Amino acid sequence: MFSLIVCTVDRFDQLERLFQSLARQTLKTFEIILVDQNGDGRLIDLVERFASSFPIRHLRSGRGLSHARNNGIAKASGSYVCFPDDDCWYEPATLETAARLFRENPALSIVTGRTLDADGNPSVSPTGDRSVEISRRNYLSCGNSNGIFVRREALSSIGGFDENLGVGSASPFQSAEEADLLLRFVGAGQKLAYFPQLIVHHDQVVSVIGTQQIERARKYGRGFGALLRKHDFSLPYVTYRVARPAIGWLVACFRCNADEAAFKRAWLKGIVEGYKAWPKWNGIDQSLRIES
């Protein structure tokens, strides 16, 4: 059985779309653990409406994506655990495909897949067209949290998400929790693999750059910088990861694209700040606040 940990806040219609896709799954042996971070009862009617389609455990949790997911993991009873966002949706055979991949590859602790929009184009993160074993070299191109499916027994031995990383964390590091999970599995000698035929859907991320996107870039950059420090990546690799947004910033300045330049600069500053701050971030929140 699969346990689907769905953490949600401030969404309804998109969560309903996810539930509708789950009701159409060809594999029926799954449970939903809905970790509700809303302060009201807006989801009660939705839960009651789908309760006859599949088992739903409705939990309450404070803010913080990693914290909420760990609360859900603690209640999971399935052999496999996955983490669909509240604004993604599954193909009818998504769970059946994941189950088949685990059966065919008993040595794997994690299988990951690709995230596509409704038209079949890559969304959220870039992924390849070939199956590959996941390593420290390719972890960024092997899917995002929507497409991570993990054996629960392996998750119990490695641990859940680092609550110092991810959106809503009390720390300044507002991303990289899923990459951290993959890297911890790799570091423990577990086998992980990416399969392009395993598909989850998600709308394209809005590409218009504004103040909110620039602020988010810096926050997410801090998470990635912390990840680089936490997993002790080599100096050449860290330099490469810093150089990419630095070059993008310079190119955007040369082209007089002020918004793009501000976005790249925010990402660059975030990486540097996160790398410097990990792990002793406590008490420095004010020094890492977004500049106006």
UniProtKB/TrEMBL annotation:
<dbReference type="InterPro" id="IPR001173">
    <property type="entry name" value="Glyco_trans_2-like"/>
</dbReference>
<dbReference type="InterPro" id="IPR050834">
    <property type="entry name" value="Glycosyltransf_2"/>
</dbReference>
<dbReference type="InterPro" id="IPR029044">
    <property type="entry name" value="Nucleotide-diphossugar_trans"/>
</dbReference>
<dbReference type="GO" id="GO:0016740">
    <property type="term" value="F:transferase activity"/>
</dbReference>
<feature type="domain" description="Glycosyltransferase 2-like">
    <location>
        <begin position="3"/>
        <end position="125"/>
    </location>
</feature>
<protein>
    <submittedName>
        <fullName>GT2 family glycosyltransferase</fullName>
    </submittedName>
</protein>
<dbReference type="Pfam" id="PF00535">
    <property type="entry name" value="Glycos_transf_2"/>
</dbReference>
<keyword id="KW-0808">Transferase</keyword>
